[in-house]
């Protein structure tokens, strides 16, 4: 039930015959510097996602400081988490123009600036801008490159690498929670945010470690087919992607013409520069500035063209029907993971299980098993005989079942078992970049995964308030889990139905041709 993007042919005009050429394998693919990329991504998840998981500590301080409603104050954390993911498509534009390394470094500076400015907040609305927007955008500019770089450096062990790097979220939740509690007690919340801003500058170091692969190296390495089981199913989806590939060829010809024009402009500037060596230094300085501006203009135009064609052009990612189904799934998926974290404490109080929960919180069970789930599912997905897509779907079905069953459990043991299953099955988050890359390829991973995490951000931003609204109407948390679970099931069904529809289309076409 799974296809890799190499099998689909979603290469936007890349010649498949190039994969048959003997090329020198890059020594950093699946080894060498690739593991430094995993370390960098791991630290990014600790500093960004882990810090966001620990914002409950600061939320209490903000409530006491500003005396605002819980709903209004909670929007500070929601904005930061939501914007980090929602800005994904726009961060893809930065990556196309500047590359992952520069984008991550700029994002690290912006994130640290958001933390530091928030230390001087005079009201909650000030935090909306400094922490929600500024720090949120900075987090998004680091988070997406961290995921994309792991996908570029790994092919055979891609799922394991993504699993190891994303475990930083779980570790960060524990570390940052303890750190922020200590800093708030010892120095107060304002100084704690200032110190956290200084710590966030380490994101720039993580970005500096993201050494880019050359375009030729990426193309050569992505010609490898992951496993034989994926090849067989590829024939079912080739019908829907032939149009995308042909459109990609047309766009490629147009890009070549524009690149030729850009090169002519740069050549003319260089000729003027070489002919004016005898002129005064002031004129030479002006020519150097003109040359730099011309180069920057070419880079920006090229990056914007790739970004625009991926979303709105003839070779748009939205012409891939499986990818569209993947987006619909993402709109419902993330909230089903976030909602238990928010509402479990209230459910525990309703069932008079606070004493057991204080000894070992249910949310801690989810976080710990979530780390194990990411690593184990990554190892399983990398096995030659296992399809990543099937592992991804099985984990989703398990999570849906747990969300629907959780309200029926009224004992601590029962809730603990369900929470452990939720934590393990939600480890499929580490497979999301792998599935996305297999659908669209390494070249378009930044834009495609930006769309996916944007959909997740919308889900994370609207899901918890929606669940609270359902509780206000029904005075029960049960319906919140049931409705979110059913919506999640709809998204999973989209992932199942779309490949089946595409599998039938070639057969119907062949039958019509036989009648003719």
UniProtKB/TrEMBL annotation:
- Species in which this protein is naturally found: Eudromia elegans
Q: How does it sit in the membrane?
A: Multi-pass membrane protein
Coiled-coil region list: none
> Record's InterPro entries?
MFS (IPR011701), MFS_dom (IPR020846), MFS_trans_sf (IPR036259), Proton-linked_MCT (IPR050327)
Start and end residues of each stretch annotated as Disordered: 1-25
Provide the protein name: MOT14 protein
Q: Where is the composition biased (Basic and acidic residues)?
A: 1-20
**GO CC terms:** membrane
Q: What is the lineage of its organism?
A: Eukaryota, Metazoa, Chordata, Craniata, Vertebrata
């Amino acid at each position: 039930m799974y296809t890799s993007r190499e099998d689909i042919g979603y290469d936007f005009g890349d010649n498949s015959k190039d994969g048959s050429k003997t090329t020198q394998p890059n020594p950093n693919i699946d080894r060498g510097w690739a593991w430094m990329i995993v370390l960098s991504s791991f630290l990014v998840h600790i500093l960004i996602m882990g810090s966001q998981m620990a914002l409950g500590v600061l939320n209490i301080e903000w409530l006491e400081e500003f005396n605002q409603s819980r709903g209004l104050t909670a929007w500070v954390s929601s904005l930061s988490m939501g914007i980090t993911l929602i800005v994904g498509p726009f961060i893809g534009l930065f990556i196309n123009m500047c590359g992952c390394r520069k984008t991550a470094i700029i994002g690290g500076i912006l994130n640290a600036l958001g933390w530091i400015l928030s230390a001087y907040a005079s009201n909650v609305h000030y935090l909306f801008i400094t922490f929600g927007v500024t720090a949120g955008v900075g987090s998004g500019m680091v988070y997406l490159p961290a995921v994309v770089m792991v996908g570029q450096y790994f092919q055979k062990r891609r799922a394991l690498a993504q699993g190891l790097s994303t475990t930083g979220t779980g570790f960060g939740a524990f570390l940052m929670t303890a750190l922020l509690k200590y800093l708030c007690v010892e120095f107060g919340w304002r100084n704690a945010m200032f110190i956290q801003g200084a710590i966030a500058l380490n994101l720039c170091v993580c970005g500096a470690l993201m050494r880019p692969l050359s375009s030729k190296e990426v193309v050569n390495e992505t010609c490898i087919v992951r496993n034989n089981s994926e090849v067989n199913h590829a024939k079912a989806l080739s019908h829907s992607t032939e149009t995308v590939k042909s459109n990609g060829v047309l766009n490629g010809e147009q890009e070549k013409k524009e690149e030729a024009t850009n090169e002519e402009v740069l050549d003319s500037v260089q000729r003027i520069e070489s002919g004016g060596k005898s002129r005064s230094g002031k004129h030479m300085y002006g020519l150097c500035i003109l040359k730099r501006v011309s180069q920057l203009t070419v880079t920006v135009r090229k990056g914007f063209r790739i970004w625009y064609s991926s979303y709105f052009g003839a070779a748009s990612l939205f012409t891939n029907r499986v990818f569209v189904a993947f987006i619909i799934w993402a709109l419902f998926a993330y909230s089903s993971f976030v909602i238990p974290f928010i509402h479990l404490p209230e459910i525990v109080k309703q069932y008079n299980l606070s004493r057991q929960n204080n000894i070992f919180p249910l949310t801690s069970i989810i976080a710990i098993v979530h780390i194990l789930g990411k690593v184990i599912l990554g190892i399983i997905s990398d096995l030659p005989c296992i399809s990543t897509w099937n592992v991804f779907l099985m984990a989703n079905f398990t999570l849906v079942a747990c969300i629907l069953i959780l309200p029926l459990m009224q004992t601590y043991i029962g809730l603990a078992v369900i929470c452990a299953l939720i934590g393990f099955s939600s480890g499929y988050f580490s497979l999301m970049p792998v599935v996305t890359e297999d659908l669209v390829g390494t070249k378009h991973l930044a834009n495609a995964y930006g769309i996916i995490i944007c959909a997740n951000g919308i889900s994370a931003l609207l899901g918890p308030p929606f669940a609270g609204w359902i509780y206000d109407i029904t005075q029960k948390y049960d319906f919140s889990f049931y409705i979110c679970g059913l919506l999640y099931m709809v998204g999973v069904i989209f992932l199942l139905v779309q490949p089946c529809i595409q599998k039938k289309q070639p057969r119907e076409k062949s039958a019509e041709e036989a009648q003719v």
